[in-house]
């Protein structure tokens, strides 16, 4: 129950009399509101070093689960995190576990499940050693308020892509940065904020300078704009059948318009963001008119020629089997356009290993990958109006992987 902290002066004495038997009001001036407590559940596990014959615990590793306060492993590699939950009636929910330690590659694990009504053990988490690497400590904040943003995904692009999520105060730790020094692009994603760092240019990354050393040497603050902040929104309009760019298409977003150039590209300065209606028109194609979330990501709009079949719920589907496992969730399946390598759609498998992608007609390389397993890739041709099913993969565990 939410209790307002605002009371009108009129009627205040009557309110005091009503509660006088319960609370010492001191003339109403001493009234204190009850503290609202968010329920939590304890989640425990062990952080170990990967690639060794015997389990080697990692002490003082940073652990955050679903935007919790950070916890650190003990000398046995053990941790317990109290994570906030919205329901305590015995649901099973999926959690995102972020783990980092200087000298090891940071990990974001999104295939663990917990109960909301009882303590849960999520087992072992293995970190790969990263000698001669650097670490970065930082904080993600709301640019308009300065408050930390919990559970935001930080993506760091070095020789390897590293991902973690922020803690309750917006803080994060990234370890295993290779090379150990230089300028690196970083992105941040959160459902309530834009991915854009520069509202005028639409730039969706922040350059971060890293020096050789641990997180005491490298510290950064990343500022996000709330969803709804006007920003430059860019994108491209293409022919859904040929994937050729469409010039001269009219793009309307929240009452603002732009026309695509010879490459099918457009940009709309100070465009509205959040849930918006996007309309794209061209005399030679069917009109696109959909409500979608505009968060700063580049928009790619496919227009169909007259007479095309309506969109299918998916155009590629299948199953991924992880060798020796009963839980096949957390596999990333991506479809890349064969012609130029552009990623068109991405899916994550469920516990049964099922996935589905929606992509326009064309020739694609579909790749299934998960840490600790050998990736697999195959060519798939999608034709207009036909869904390609049973595109299945079996991923073998890497030698020496836990």
Overview of the structural elements:
The protein is mainly β and 402 residues long. The protein has 4 domains: 1-36, no CATH class; 37-226, Sandwich (Immunoglobulin-like), CATH 2.60.40; 231-303, Sandwich (Immunoglobulin-like), CATH 2.60.40.1120; 316-395, Immunoglobulin-like (Sandwich), CATH 2.60.40.10. Helices cover 2% and strands 45% of the residues. The protein is built from 1 helix and 28 strands. It has one helix at 12-19; strands at residues 40-49, 62-65, 71-72, 78-84, 92-100, 107-115, 120-127, 134-142, 153-157, 161-165, 171-177, 182-189, 206-210, 219-224, 231-239, 250-253, 256-259, 265-271, 274-281, 288-294, 299-303, 316-322, 332-337, 343-348, 354-357, 362-369, 376-382, 393-395. The strands form 8 sheets. It has a 4-stranded antiparallel sheet, with no helix packed on it. The chain has a 4-stranded antiparallel sheet with strand order 10-9-12-13, with no helix packed on it. A 4-stranded antiparallel sheet has the order 17-16-19-20, with no helix packed on it. A hairpin with a 6-residue loop joins strand 26 (362-369) and strand 27. The two termini are 46 Å apart. Residues 1-29 have low confidence and may be disordered.
